[in-house]
């Protein structure tokens, strides 16, 4: 437990973190990777370049400081981060490295304003926060390993099938090389792939949502090829999977993880909304609902640029024909000549109100601007926060 004086000092730094937080975390990563380049085998290099990781860490540090006297209030955030840590294989002995470099970054950015008293207080606070993460993650490691078909660390899987779903999305069907049982998962969860493409100095790890219902002898991920754009290079892992990984090849996976999951205790109607490759967890949820709660009313809405980028179109169409409780809709931003859809352009509130009911559980996933628009529409409609569920691909961001 922290003493009252330490808590007072930490809370007094909250306004400073609000202003300088991202500068501190950016400096932290630069310093840590310089001192410990081996950690580049764990962290997502693309998120580092784009500033996503430093922003996410700054938000987490700010939240921890603001709630330092009541950390239990941010336990849901802790659990989400801890799930990713477990999936990446973060170890207790790495926390002191993070703490040492975080304190050094605070000192470098704030200069004389970071007095010895403040640095000492943050050292104590970091120790408490790190202990919370280590404890939560220890339970997650144990659960992942001891569940039926579970394992610790990374396990070798064979690419049994590779299926092109659209011009930009390909599915990979993965079976364990040892032919033993695999761990089940909750619809919405992800697995983590570890690869080292030829010419790369470090291993690269990526989380990919499982894109089918649980209960199979394989895992399926559906990966979008991330092409180079003006503000970022091509995706290292996605292009490697698309271009260089073939049927019969081996991929290393950690056990399923993730906090974004389907609540099956409810009987309310469910609305699933996906944009682009955000369909992956939505399809897992959809298939699970149809298998386990076939009478539960479901609306599935998918938005894509056009038909060439629309994955699993025939599969969803067939499910809609086979299940009276399911209605599905297509929204194409710019449909090609002759392509049909239910709405052209973007999802907006008036259209949502015409095809769904606000008395439903809403789940959505897709690019950040897409999710911001959906979230804004649902809030404007008056949908309660507890019935709005979403997931970011990559570090958590804000939908405000």
TrEMBL record:
It is an enzyme of class 1 (oxidoreductase). Heme b binds at residue 85. The record marks 29 as: Involved in heme-bound ligand stabilization and O-O bond activation. The keyword Manganese does not apply. NADP(+) binds at residues 276-281. Its EC number is 1.14.12.17. It catalyses: 2 nitric oxide + NADPH + 2 O2 = 2 nitrate + NADP(+) + H(+); 2 nitric oxide + NADH + 2 O2 = 2 nitrate + NAD(+) + H(+). Its cofactor is FAD; heme b. GO terms for biological process: cellular response to nitrosative stress; nitric oxide catabolic process; response to toxic substance. FAD binds at residues 190, 392-395. The record marks 84, 391 as: Influences the redox potential of the prosthetic heme and FAD groups. GO terms for molecular function: FAD binding; heme binding; metal ion binding; nitric oxide dioxygenase NAD(P)H activity; oxygen binding; oxygen carrier activity. PROSITE patterns: FAD_FR (PS51384), GLOBIN (PS01033). Residues 152-263 form the FAD-binding FR-type domain. The active site is at residues 95, 137. Keywords: Detoxification, FAD, Flavoprotein, Heme, Iron, Metal-binding, NAD, NADP, Oxidoreductase, Oxygen transport, Transport. InterPro entries: Cbr1-like_FAD-bd_dom, FAD-bd_FR_type, Flavoprot_Pyr_Nucl_cyt_Rdtase, FNR_nucleotide-bd, Globin, Globin-like_sf, Globin/Proto, Hmp. It comes from the Bacteria. Belongs to the globin family. Two-domain flavohemoproteins subfamily. In the C-terminal section; belongs to the flavoprotein pyridine nucleotide cytochrome reductase family. This is Flavohemoprotein.
